[in-house]
Specification:
Elements: E1 2-9, H1 13-24, E2 30-33, E3 45-48, E4 51-54, E5 61-62, H2 66-73, E6 81-85, E7 88-92, E8 95-98, H3 101-104, H4 110-121, H5 135-159, H6 180-189, E9 201-205, H7 211-221, E10 225-226, E11 231-235, E12 240-243, E13 248-256, E14 265-267, H8 271-278, E15 282-290, E16 300-302, E17 312-315, E18 325-330, E19 345-353, H9 359-371, E20 375-377, H10 379-382, H11 389-404
Length: about 400
Amino acid sequence: MIKVKYLILGGGPSGLTLANALVQRGENSVLLIEKESEAGGLCRSTDVDGWALDTGGGHFLDVRRPEVCEFLFRFMGPEEWDRYDRDSRIRLKGHEVSHPLEANIWQLPEYVQRQYLESIRAAGCNNGAAMPARFTEWIYWKLGERIAADYMIPYNKKMFADELDELGTYWLDKLPNVDYEDTLRSCREHHAYGTQPGHASFYYPKKYGYGEVFNRMAEELGDRIVYNAKVSTLDTDSHRITTKEGDEFEGNIVITTVPWNSFDSVTGISDEMMTKMRSLKHSSIEIRYFAEDAGTDAQWVYCPDPELPYHRILVRYNFCKGKGYWTETRSERTSMFKENEGGPVFMNEYAYPLNTMDKPVIMDRLLTFMNGRNIIGLGRWGEHSHFNSDVVIKKALELSKTLTD
């Protein structure tokens, strides 16, 4: 039995950040448990065809959170990163249009522009209708029928789930409305207006994949990381963790960054709560490498076409080095690839938490109960929310202050 003050489950960005931040703040009794043989989680990278490939999909360091950049630059100095302006596009009906679509429909033929303008003009968000509670209805409310049918419905089905009505809209309330006047102005002046998406500018390592910075964070922790230790059982009364291998760990405070529904058992909670925890949904994503040219200057491209298995491609040579690109495909669609098409292939069982209608109630009850037991959920999986890496790093830094102040 190993006992520590802070026991952290999961060595992805949030777990690595919290562990390092606690040590930097003078806490020595810190231990991180990681199921794989290396840290990094969804932000791991490997060498493919002579250059880095991010095995968990496309991850970048957003420039908008200086405290996050400053923290990561302690492990990998600013001189080791390149800064890029985002160039992401949508392949739609034989055209490649800059993202977001509503700000760039002027790049489409004029007859399509008129159809899409009418779609936005008639959308509920531009006519005073209340924001719907279901995701599919929200798409129509946001962008109107034509854009929903051509782009948003097929793309989100490919990325998240075939049954989009299982998803809610509570996670979308901070997005700005698509303004018809801004869209019309964009078409007239051939210039994007309105709010730009996240990652408008981002950093990416000059010589490595994004996972390199997390490798260095793990190295900094040294023997404070235990690898190849898959957490099996969580005892909420004793704060004791048992791994698949039979090892036991105990923490005064346990911080979990792993999926709640990945535990084999959790003792000390009601059967009802256990059932609800098991019902949390997620999607699994395959990353597949292709050596050829992607035929675009964009860094990543959204692909709503239902006939294509993948929903997004990341064009490696447009934001780092090397050649080729990789695709992101929901696991249920990977059978659409031809035999031996592309490669190598990497499967991520836990890729995106799904924001189902009942998730807020489940997570509120679960985290409230666990916090009362000094067990804290942190990050994409500990909070079961689709946070980018810069967001979970910020959350981990804030938690380190809360725990030590």
